[in-house]
Amino acid sequence: ETGVTQSPTHLIKTRGQQVTLRCSSQSGHNTVSWYQQALGQGPQFIFQYYREEENGRGNFPPRFSGLQFPNYSSELNVNALELDDSALYLCASSFTNRGPDTQYFGPGTRLTVL
Amino acid sequence: SQQGEEDPQALSIQEGENATMNCSYKTSINNLQWYRQNSGRGLVHLILIRSNEREKHSGRLRVTLDTSKKSSSLLITASRAADTASYFCATESSGGSNYKLTFGKGTLLTVNP
Predict the structure, then answer these.
(1) Tens-place pLDDT, residues B32-82
(2) CA–CA separation, B39 vs B84, rounded Å?
């Protein structure tokens, strides 16, 4: 088990709603990355936060936004939910934003959009 | 977009046999990593191989990297039922300011007791 925790474990929302997912990084890690994993696919990079600043973004629309707090925990916010947003959302923390470095993944939040 | 493509998509073997999974990628990389995922849960880091390395071992795992062919393989020797999981390769590419991983679609490994 890594020291990365995520909440909630499961979440059901309806289309058009907003959702906030949370991630606590491993002790000593200042970088958090978020990934979306659709069923049967590999994780896709959403964005990364390094010392409270967004430090890179994947091919996701602006309704996906995030925050990182002074204790390096992080939130992923998704507005105007769509059915295709149903997925496992994974956060990963690392000691640095520069590779090579191991990213430690949390157990994920399973989001279902109806 | 997916960078790596794992092959095969699914693999079923008997306990004690070796399992080999392959990964191909498209762009130049800094390093390649292999992760394991049990039943749609979090990913567990297995091994990292840098672009200037050709082979790496960790316990029952052996990873090779051929940058000229843009491919990697993961060998699990003497497999166990507990090795049943999905295995993903992930690449870190050059040129970015952030350290992001680009994953393939994975290989589902089933080890039958």
Answers:
(1) 999 999 987 889 999 999 999 999 999 999 999 999 999 999 999 999 999
(2) 9
Q: Do B49 and B90 contact (CB within 8 A), yes or no?
A: no
CB A92 within 8 A of CB A46: no
Contact A45 B41 (CB under 8 A): no
Q: Do B99 and A92 touch (CB under 8 A)?
A: no
Beta carbons within 10 angstroms of residue B9's beta carbon: 11
Q: What confidence tens digit (pLDDT) does each residue in A16-51 have?
A: 999 999 999 988 888 899 999 999 899 999 999 988
Residue of A nearest to B40 (CA): A88
- A95 in B contact zone (CB under 8 Å): no
Which residues have CB under 8 Å from B49's CB, separation 6+?
B31, B32, B33, B55, B56, B63, B64, B65, B72
Q: Distance between CA B68 and CA B85 in Å, rounded?
A: 29
